[in-house]
Write a structure and sequence with these properties.
CATH class of one domain: Mainly Alpha
Helix content: over 70%
Radius of gyration: 30 Å
Largest sheet: none
CATH topology of one domain: Serine Threonine Protein Phosphatase 5, Tetratricopeptide repeat
Oligomer: single chain
CATH architecture of one domain: Alpha Horseshoe
CATH superfamily of one domain: Tetratricopeptide repeat domain
Length: 237
């Protein structure tokens, strides 16, 4: 059904636009995106208010890695159409682009806009949830990296302190040397300071409840990941 829709749109576009548009469509289908983008741009010069040309140009530009230019073309497309469905297609594709680029916060905004204009779009729903999970994974990785960096700094500091102890003058003032038994006392005090405080039953129950909720979410995510995503990752015009 999706393929029939795509062919119908291209035929309609060919009949209402210049010959460059037909060639651009063919080049895009062959995967020759640079040629397609050039031909779409030529067609736009002659038909600047044809929204479909801007949409197809955006798709070609993104395939070429020109994300900023593609975003601009999608915005131009949205400015030339009043159809909520068409605008949702552009927002969905922008969300997919930003997800691929790792900009999950912005991607979520565009998927949300796509769902506002087309609430029953299964692709937008799936990719919205996917972007949420990827954002959580990204934040988790950042926290792990920061934790590892902190451990490395601590080890280096301890190494420097140890080196300073070794470099101390063996002829230092006896009054500054640690007295027998003082080290054991210091260690006991340190252990007392490091001992965690006992938690209340309410705090323990809150932690258990949070863990149970987390397990439920993980199970739900695993079920979603085991389900194949929709066939199309990008909206066709």
């Amino acid at each position: 059904m999706r393929a029939v829709f795509l062919v119908t749109i291209f035929i309609f576009l060919t009949a209402s636009s210049v010959n460059d548009a037909r060639k651009a469509n063919s080049a895009f289908e062959r995967g020759e995106f640079a040629e397609a983008a050039q031909l779409y741009q030529q067609s736009i010069e002659q038909n600047p208010d044809d929204a479909r040309l801007h949409f197809n140009l955006a798709r070609a530009l993104y395939e070429l890695g020109e994300s900023d230019a593609a975003m601009e073309s999608y915005e131009r497309f949205k400015s030339l159409t009043d159809s909520p469905l068409n605008r949702s297609f552009a927002d969905y594709n922008k969300g997919r682009m930003l997800t691929d680029m790792g900009n999950y916060d912005e991607a979520l905004d565009y998927f949300r806009d796509a769902l506002i204009n087309n609430p029953n779009d299964p692709d937008a729903k799936f990719n919205y949830e996917l972007a949420v999970r990827k954002k959580q994974d990204q934040e988790s990785d950042q926290e792990s990296s920061e934790s590892e960096d902190g451990d490395g700094d601590q080890d280096e500091s301890q190494s420097q302190d140890s080196q300073q102890d070794q470099d101390q003058d063996p002829n230092q003032d006896p009054d500054n040397q640690q007295q027998p038994g003082q080290q054991d006392q210091d260690e006991n005090e340190s252990q007392q300071q490091e001992r965690p405080l006992e938690m209340t039953p309410e705090e323990a129950q809150n932690i258990l409840d949070a863990l149970e909720q987390l397990e439920r979410e993980l199970l739900e995510n695993q079920k979603k990941e085991s389900t194949n995503p929709p066939a199309s990752n990008e909206k066709d015009w």
